[in-house]
């Protein structure tokens, strides 16, 4: 079976681990655990070509102690960037994170998950931000790891793109 | 990187049997040089570079020596499986990395099945926790089941690499318990995932280490009595792995030694 390595990248506390847990195990953790190194999960998802095993590399988020470790990105087939829609600065930093990733491993199929959409009262992003992503040809999904909204769609898209790009003639 | 590793296990002050087991192993291609016109040093150096260091701790659950059998069977089975699959330790490229992780996980599943086969059906058989770290180059691969732990110390900062698979952690995550409830509940430490048990959900991860970092694997006999700041302080001392492991063991015993205690300390040099 085809396997594709997808890296979860973002600032700490944006919900990368929760998105993976919701997608793989259909559960949500209310307690925050900072990821150390990389946590790896697997899930088989259907694509047009049949099935693909997604190897989900949940990378420790960028925090005050250091940046993301680019050696973890080696061999990735796609990246799902995660933004906390209630923390403006996590959106502002995602462009810089993409630069770091692309400098390390080149352009890859990627999308942005604007996460925590269930926290509507605290939402800090608007139409201008959607436009900023669209102008950079960046596919975006509004997600909630808590309710599951948008989660399947985001991973299904990145799976399809990773397979499509992998099978495209070079 | 050079690795100074040392392990210790102790029955503690309360239990009659030691149901913990551990392994420290180095896996490398078996090249036994007889004669050669090649420069021996270079050839030997290449072989050494591709070594993998394997560290495993396991804490048996079951009583009446069943736990001891389970942890022993799991560690032995895993070591045998990894030794058979050792070809994939070398020249670990991107594609081989995923295969390697799958093999480690498969090794744990094999141990799970062996415990069922040799010691009884799921739910009746004794079972065990198991935490494995495989260090290849600067990358440490982790496979974890239960509540034994892996930590690493980097520039004085202690980080826990594993999360306890216990009832308390599960219910805290689900929001069903508060920290206060978990601290009071007698069932908080009950394992929800063990090798040989009814449920087994291996957790897989990795971390890149650098010279100067210290890796610690331990059973809960240590962490019941020695808090993280104390662990960090001991790991941070400029001492050998054996001295460090001894000090951690002494602290756990001085703290009460209410359970079996096992520690593996691996200090990474240049």
Question: What's the topology here?
Answer:
The complex is a heterodimer of chains A (170) and B (270).
Chain A: E1 2-10, H1 16-25, E2 38-47, E3 50-59, E4 78-84, H2 88-92, H3 94-105, E5 110-115, H4 127-135, E6 139-142, H5 151-167
Parallel strand pairs in A: 1-3, 1-4, 4-5, 5-6
Antiparallel strand pairs in A: 2-3
Chain B: E1 3-10, E2 20-27, H1 40-49, E3 52-61, H2 66-84, H3 94-119, E4 127-128, E5 130-136, E6 139-145, E7 149-154, E8 157-160, H4 167-174, H5 179-184, E9 203-208, E10 214-218, H6 220-223, H7 228-235, H8 241-254, E11 261-268
Antiparallel strand pairs in B: 1-11, 2-3, 3-4, 3-5, 5-6, 6-9, 7-8, 7-10, 10-11
Helix pairs in contact in B: 2-3
How many separate domains of chain A?
A: 1
Task: Give the low-pLDDT segments of chain B.
Answer: none
CATH homologous superfamily (4th level) name of chain A: P-loop containing nucleotide triphosphate hydrolases
In the CATH scheme, what's the topology name of chain B?
Phosphatase 2c, domain 1
CATH classification class of chain B: Alpha Beta
- Which outline of chain A best applies? globular
CATH topological fold name of chain A? Rossmann fold
Count of DSSP helices of chain A? 5
Record field, number of beta strands of chain B: 11
CATH architecture classification of chain B: 4-Layer Sandwich
Radius of gyration of chain B: 19 Å
Instruction: Estimate percent helicity of chain A.
Output: 25-40%
CATH class of chain A: Alpha Beta
| Shape verdict of chain B | globular
Q: Could you state the order of secondary-structure elements of chain A as H and E?
A: EHEEEHHEHEH
Strand order of the biggest β-sheet of chain A: 2-3-1-4-5-6
Largest sheet of chain A: 6 strands, mixed
Question: Hey, roughly how much beta strand do the residues of chain A contain?
Answer: 25-35%
Structural class of chain B: alpha+beta
SS element count, helices of chain B: 8
């Amino acid at each position: 079976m085809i396997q594709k390595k997808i890296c979860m990248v973002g600032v700490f506390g944006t919900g990368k681990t929760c998105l993976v847990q919701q997608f793989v195990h259909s559960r949500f953790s209310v307690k925050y655990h900072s990821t150390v190194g990389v946590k790896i999960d697997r899930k088989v998802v259907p694509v047009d070509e049949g099935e693909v095993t997604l190897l989900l590399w949940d990378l420790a988020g960028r925090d005050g102690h250091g940046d993301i470790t680019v050696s973890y990105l080696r061999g990735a087939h796609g990246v799902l960037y995660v933004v906390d829609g209630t923390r403006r600065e996590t959106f502002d930093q995602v462009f810089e994170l993409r630069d770091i990733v692309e400098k390390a491993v080149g352009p890859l199929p990627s999308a942005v998950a604007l996460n925590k959409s269930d926290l509507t009262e605290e939402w800090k992003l608007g139409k201008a931000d959607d436009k900023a992503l669209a102008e950079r040809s960046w596919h975006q999904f509004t997600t909630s790891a808590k309710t599951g909204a948008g989660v399947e769609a985001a991973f299904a898209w990145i799976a399809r793109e990773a397979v499509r790009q992998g099978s495209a003639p070079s | 990187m050079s690795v100074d590793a040392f392990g210790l296990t102790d029955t503690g002050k309360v239990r009659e049997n030691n149901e913990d087991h551990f392994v420290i192993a180095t896996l490398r291609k078996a090249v036994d040089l007889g004669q050669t016109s090649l420069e021996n040093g270079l050839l030997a150096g290449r072989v050494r570079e591709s070594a993998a260091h394997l560290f495993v701790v396991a804490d048996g659950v079951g009583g009446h020596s069943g736990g001891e059998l389970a942890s022993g069977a799991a560690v032995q089975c895993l070591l045998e499986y990894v030794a058979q699959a050792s070809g994939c330790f070398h020249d670990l490229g991107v594609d081989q990395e995923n295969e390697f992780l799958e093999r480690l996980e498969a090794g744990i599943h094999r141990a799970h099945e062996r415990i069922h086969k040799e010691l009884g059906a799921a739910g009746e058989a004794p079972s065990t926790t198991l935490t494995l770290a495989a260090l290849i180059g600067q990358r440490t691969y982790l496979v974890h089941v239960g509540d034994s732990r892996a930590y690493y110390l980097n520039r004085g900062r202690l980080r826990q690499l594993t999360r306890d698979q216990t009832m308390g952690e599960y219910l805290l995550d689900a929001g069903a318990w508060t920290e206060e409830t978990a601290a009071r509940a007698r069932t908080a430490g009950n394992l929800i995932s063990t090798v040989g048990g009814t449920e087994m959900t291996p957790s897989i991860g990795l971390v890149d280490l650098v010279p100067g970092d210290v890796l610690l694997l331990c059973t809960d006999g240590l962490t019941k009595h020695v808090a993280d700041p104390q662990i960090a302080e001991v790991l941070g001392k400029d001492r050998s792995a054996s001295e460090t492991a001894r000090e951690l063991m002494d602290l756990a015993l001085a703290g009460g030694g209410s359970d079996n205690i096992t520690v593996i300390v691996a200090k990474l040099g240049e």
